[in-house]
Description:
The protein is mainly beta. Among the domains are: 126-317 and 360-498, no CATH class; 652-718 and 754-856, no CATH class; 872-1002, no CATH class. It is 7% helix and 29% strand.
Amino acid sequence: xxxxxxxxxxxxxxxxxxxxxxxTSAMAQDEQGSGFFRKGTLDGTPDGITEAEFKAAFPxxxxxxxxxxxxPSEIPDIFGPGAVLSVGRVQMKVTxxxxxxxxxxxxxxxxSGQWPGASGVEYLNFAGLAVGAVNPLTTDPNAIRRVSAFxxxxxxxxxxxxxxxxxxxxIVNGARFVNDDEDKYPARTGLYQPGDQRFDEDFLDGIDNxxxxxxxxxxxxxxxxxxTCRMNDYTLQSINATxxxxxxxxxxxxxxxxxxxxxxGYTDFNVVQYTIYNRSGHALDxxxxxxxxxxxxxxxxxxxxxxxxxxxxGFPSCELPHQTDVNDLRxxxxxxxxxxxxxxxxNDSALCSHFNLRINGFSVVDDNGDLNLTRGxxxxxxxxxxxxxxxxxxxxxxxxxxxxPYRVGFLAFRSYPGNMPYVGxxxxxxxxxxxxxxxxxxxxxxxxxxxxxQEPGAEKGDYQxxxxxxxxxxxxxxxxxxxxxxxxxxxxTRVLATKFRTRLNEERAAGFPxxxxxxxxxxxxxxxxxxxxxxxxxxxxxxxxGWALFPNGHGRETPIHPNLGEGxxxxxxxxxxxxxxxxxxxxxxxxxxxxxxxTGAYDAAGGTRTFQSTWSAQSPPPNPSLNVAAxxxxxxxxxxxxPAGDNQVTLAWDNxxxxxxxxxxxxxxxxxxxxxxxxxxxxxxxxxxPSDNDWALLGEFRQFHQWRDSSGVPKLLQQNSFRTxxxxxxYPVGSEHCPLGCFDTATVDITLKVDDMWNAQNGEVIRxxxxxxxxxxxxxxxxxxxxxxxxxxxxxxxxPSKKYFEHRIRYLVGRYQLVDREVKNGFVYFYSVTAFDSTxxxxxxxxxxxxxxxxxxxxxPDASVREGKNAWVVPNPYRGYRNMAERPSSWDLIPNGSxxxxxxxxxxxxxxxKWTIKIFTVSGDLVQTIRSEDAVNESIRPPFLGPDGTIIxxxxxxxxxxxxxxxxxNLISRNGQDIVxxxxxxxxxxxxxxxxxxFVVIR
Length: 1003
């Protein structure tokens, strides 16, 4: 079991880094990208950090001076390939160093905030976390008010546990509002009584958070892609760093969870949630949360594309009426109410037919759209944070909760051109300035209605923003607060966005005759923000089995119960006739402090117990694990099915899509797979992988797995034989009858067994293989999943006898295999297998996962080994072109930081066994040496955690399998230089003897 012991990691190197960072910021990068960040560091002042100085500070990650490429590592998740949300249309990097986005483009080619998909058009430089507080116990005046910001947040250690974790909604042990491990509270804990069930208590972080000697056995994952990590502000490296301003930690832990959706209507936003714990040993006062956001709009191919952005402070902030969903129990219609209660709403109407939806956000936009390349508007949203709805003073001009904000909103905001000094409205650069701004002492920029009131900047430029929320006046030791933000990109232009405030005022004056629709239909950015906020609001629904806390009256949103020994608490709320008293031995009582019937939904007539199921969204089956993915296809993986072959690629995937119940219905509603392929990708500048337009459908395969319900007992149809009409060739392609190939139809016999996949268009069948099951970690045998039979009434799904359940076995990668022979050796290809579910009137339309792949997922077919001495070079001669448009094919890729030439020649027909290739000039000078065990994609492949808990390399080798007879060379000499035109000689030394050959390079 892991501990929280600190480890001294890179103490000197980190000190150098923080020294360089503390007094620096926003250095404009030259066109070649030699600056430390894309356009500077994090706080806005010019700096002189060179790439060489940065690499010198981290020798562990830059072992070869001048190599231009970082050794990849997940710890910290900044260098090299990292954690990228990629299932939606916003591709965004997430780190465990207090920022999301990727300002380190010299060190990693990961997207920062690209849209749509891997388009090479960026909308985000970075967004950084800052938390400030007052330490009421310190006597040091320099330590009273401190802020932990940006790189002062670190992963707790360099141990393999302190990394980025991946999951998805519905994953085993990660179902939300489900007691996955069936544990209960052993003693009184806050509002919970002994015996109450525990839900989602074990954050996904490799730690035994609930001290039950099991790790990550009950957490809640969100979206179709979840990335989690832990950070804190008190690592030895941060504390001991020598910097212009010494870091004084607040002793905070942060659980960071980021997620994205692949379902329609939810693909244009990514969400990041921070749960911040006080570990100082005492209470913290006036805690505030915020940070800096630097949104930049433009294609990476354009120089200094961030310099012509336009400020949209306050867009699309607003408050709109939103119609309550008919399935949402917060409506609290007349069938949920006792006659005559509550008295201030007519008995024949719902208590909450509508509710107010607040949008708290700000944006920027490109000045002219860059010839229609930059078609989006990026927006930063404050979605939610911890609130205290009990008003401190109802007569005060500014309403505040007793211990924290009474509603979600910004405390302070300012946007500014990047070079603006703090006193002129720019970025705070010291802890004193940061706390002054974040606490609102320097002015808030917020209107009386709680929305951003600052006027947008008049000139175009490189706009940045600082924001904060809070304060929380008394955060106890081990207490926590939570803040949720989102980054969105939607269609839009400067001209459209500037009309928003006028149209908002017109709608407001007219009483919103069309509700939110009157504005949502006109402003896509607002539509995305509303979709995100509605997704957070979720639905009020019946409580899950075993749920302990639920309201006991209409609109009562706040549970009250004294701690043991505290005696009694007396409170009055908005709709009670008098005060109520709660004793420490009484059951939990609930109060309505926010005067809003739309929170704390209650069924007085039927006795239905309700709770708010936030982030309640439909979900397609998760996409299966694929053998071509970087997380599976690496040399050190003993269980991989190698995809690369001689002029062919073998795709293999598992059945995780089939065994994952729908998170909302509990149905096993999987229907089939779609197989996608991307070829001719040339790595456009800034692109992390194929764009949406690069994918072609290879085939749709529907599963044969039918259930028939007779007298309540499900029966499995074992096999099905039938005749079907499919396309077929009448004549061979190229024949005299049909030079281009003619198609006809044919009737064929097909027999399907359970779990076979059938392509109805051509009759192709993928047989389900018994390659091996996922072992059950708690018992001998195979891991199994139970779920409701598709289409079963949800009430029947809750039958404890599981009469209407079916079980499915989980299989390893290789359950299904498909061979693609339409490939050529030496070219890079990408594949994605998406899963889709069944169409049902109860579920609405069919949902499908989103196709995506990163550069590290590319696969290259390799020629087989050859006996004898007949190796050759392809292409020969090699013709190099400076202009990519002149290059004849996708053999060459556009150069980037991990691949500075973008091109290669390949040696084919190599002998079996180990070999060494040496390349010489005609005068006999050694140019380069290539060995069979050399890594070929180390700069884009992160290491992985092996089954024994050790970190193992994630790269492929030149000789990746025993049948791999191909090796590539990037035309870089052993001195790190591009080779010139000429004739080159090579030798191949192996157990089969010495081979010699030559090739020509023309540049």
